[in-house]
Design a protein that fits this description.
By secondary structure, this protein is α+β, with helices and mostly antiparallel strands. It folds into 3 domains: 9-57; 64-176, no CATH class; 188-274, VSR Endonuclease (Endonuclease, Chain A), CATH 3.40.960.10. It has 14 helices and 10 strands. It has helices at residues 9-15, 22-27, 32-41, 59-67, 73-79, 127-137, 140-152, 158-162, 168-176, 184-187, 189-193, 230-245, 255-260, 262-274, and strands spanning 19-21, 45-48, 51-53, 70-71, 91-94, 107-110, 200-206, 209-215, 219-224, 249-254. A 4-stranded mixed β-sheet has the order 7-8-9-10, with helices on both faces. A 3-stranded antiparallel β-sheet has the order 1-3-2. Helix 12 (230-245) links the parallel strand 9 (219-224) and strand 10. The longest helix is centred in the C-terminal third of the chain and has 16 residues, at 230-245. The protein is elongated. The relative contact order is 0.08.
């Protein structure tokens, strides 16, 4: 049994993420009378039988607790700060086979047996389960971006994933994934440019700043996210000018171009390579 502190039960629930099982609160030493008083006072609300929450608890977590499911796939990835391709308006949840989690139209439910067992208190899937479901739910390129973001944030390791009984889609991602890209957009570059057979270095440093990709010796590709404005934009322009003076050539593209206009971007890169802009010994 957990030792109880002197804090009110509502603060304990807040410390547990805003939602808690009644059984877990009893294990921490809180008596039924204390819970009932908190419910009467409004410092706690009852979600369903056996679950309580603070009034301003996360609506997603409240919904998961009500239905006996866990947030998973891209929904859980976003909560963990992991890169996800697009803002899917739906909510993805996992339900343990044999559970009573419903299937309303607003939810996408995954019933497969989880790789990592889900604790009864959990409302968000373990990261290994999240990535395994992402592998099945999203296209390879998008899933790879999510996997590499999780690896970059050190939420999981390649070694840990390799020891799990992964399905083929996840195994394919494991073979490709690298823990160095810090944004999913950069992950897209390797499979999209591999056919050029030119050395491609993701996330390298030039003149004191990190660049998204270096093709060959001198061709730099920079991908502007949705928030490259203001001081960030000014610094990007300054750095572009500095490395051009050093002999580098810069192609800077937007999020829109990367995600929805890739053929035009690929054409620019092909023509730059044809002109030898990626070569250190190019003659003007």
């Amino acid at each position: 049994m957990h030792s109880r502190s002197d804090e009110p039960v509502s603060l304990c629930v807040a410390d547990l993420g805003g939602i808690a099982r009644v059984a877990s609160l009893h294990e921490r030493g809180y008596r039924r009378a204390e819970l009932e008083k908190a419910l009467r006072d409004g410092t706690l609300v009852r979600i369903r039988q056996g679950w309580v929450a603070i009034p301003d608890a996360s609506p997603q977590l409240v919904s998961a607790a009500k239905r006996g499911v866990v947030l998973t796939c891209v929904t859980a990835a976003r909560r963990l700060g992991i890169w996800v391709h697009e803002q899917d308006p739906g909510v993805h949840v996992g339900a343990t086979p044999g559970s009573a989690g419903g299937k309303p139209q607003s939810l996408r439910v995954y019933w497969a047996k989880p790789l990592v067992p889900r604790h009864p208190d959990a409302l968000v899937d373990p990261i290994e389960n999240v990535l395994a479901i992402v592998a099945e739910c999203t296209p390879f390129e998008q899933a790879l971006g999510t996997w590499e973001s999780a690896l970059n944030k050190e939420l999981v390791t390649l070694d840990a994933l390799s020891n799990l009984p992964l399905r083929p889609a996840a195994r394919n991602l494991l073979a490709e994934a690298q823990p160095f890209a810090d944004a999913g957009l950069e992950t897209y570059l390797r499979p999209r440019l591999r056919w050029l057979r030119i050395r491609l270095v993701i996330q390298t440093w030039i003149a004191g700043h990190r660049v998204d990709a270096l093709l060959g010796d001198r061709l730099v590709l920079q991908i502007d996210g949705k928030h490259h404005v203001g001081a960030q934009r000014s610094e990007d322009i300054r750095h572009d000018a500095e490395i051009r003076l050093m002999g580098y050539h810069v192609i800077r593209i937007s999020y829109q171009q990367m995600m929805f206009e890739w053929p035009q971007v690929q054409d620019l890169i092909m023509r730059a390579v044809a002109c030898g802009l990626h070569l250190a010994n190019r003659r003007a």
